Amino acid sequence: MPRRLKAPEIEEIFKRFQNAVAEPQGELHSVNDFTFLVAVVLSAQATDAGVNRATIPLFKIADTPEKIVALGDEKLRDAVKSIGLYRTKAVNVMALSKILIAEHGSKLPNTREALEALPGVGRKTANVVLNHVFGEATIAVDTHLFRLGNRIGFAMGKTPLEVETKLVKVVPAAYAKNAHHWLILHGRYVCKAKRPECWKCLINDLCQFKPKTAKPS
Q1: Helix, strand, coil % in the chain, rounded to nearest 5
Q2: What is d(CA 31, CA 80) in angstroms, rounded to the nearest whole number?
Q3: Catalytic residue set
Q4: pLDDT per residue over 147-191, tens digit each?
Q5: Are 125 and 152 within one domain?
């Protein structure tokens, strides 16, 4: 069990992340707020790269709820069939599009409750949208953040919600808006699940993970 990091150590971690990448960006392709929501819904249990391969051509012909509905079920399924669980996801995208038209004037609602009421939108997706679209300091705990919270030692928990709750409390306010992106990118490219690349980690001396992974010879 790693030692829980102290506040000055957590501050230093995010200071280093900011110094390395001042304005971190997500890697999902989108052209507006609606397509961002669709991309996040499609990204569940899928890679961003895989989702982008499907959505880049899709969003060229359907970038609004009305255009998704006009596309029809069969064409929407065909457009996203390269993505895992595509049938269920296509049903959700079609359903949420109709709800946005009928209940929200085709705009994304700006509350967690309203977002989570949309088909295919859970807490994690709602957090991503609230952060990216509405600028809220939410933290969406995916597999990367869950791993990092426990491995690094600043937000240990047995469930994503427990890790999220602790992260929200310990991440300094100055870094809260971008914390989600910094941690995802760190988990995706450095602090990998099976073999973290500790030798190139910029928070190596603060992270509680042991033993550190040695650089391949």
Answers
A1: 60, 0, 40
A2: 17
A3: 124, 142
A4: 999 999 999 999 999 999 999 999 999 999 999 999 999 999 999
A5: no
Two tokens, residue 216: 């391949």
DSSP secondary structure letter of residue 200:
G
Q: pTM to 2 decimals?
A: 0.91
Q: How many CB atoms lie within 10 A of CB 190?
A: 17
Instruction: Domain of residue 169: give its range.
Output: 7-24+139-200
Residues in contact with 49: Cβ distance below 8 Å, sequence separation at least 6, in sequence order: 27
Q: What is the domain-level CATH number for residue 146?
A: 1.10.1670.10
Beta carbons of 23 and 178 less than 8 angstroms apart: yes
Q: Is the model's pLDDT at 134 over the cut of 80?
A: yes
- From first CA to last CA, the distance across the chain in angstroms is 29
Tell me the two tokens of residue 73. 């079920």
58 token code pair: 């899709």
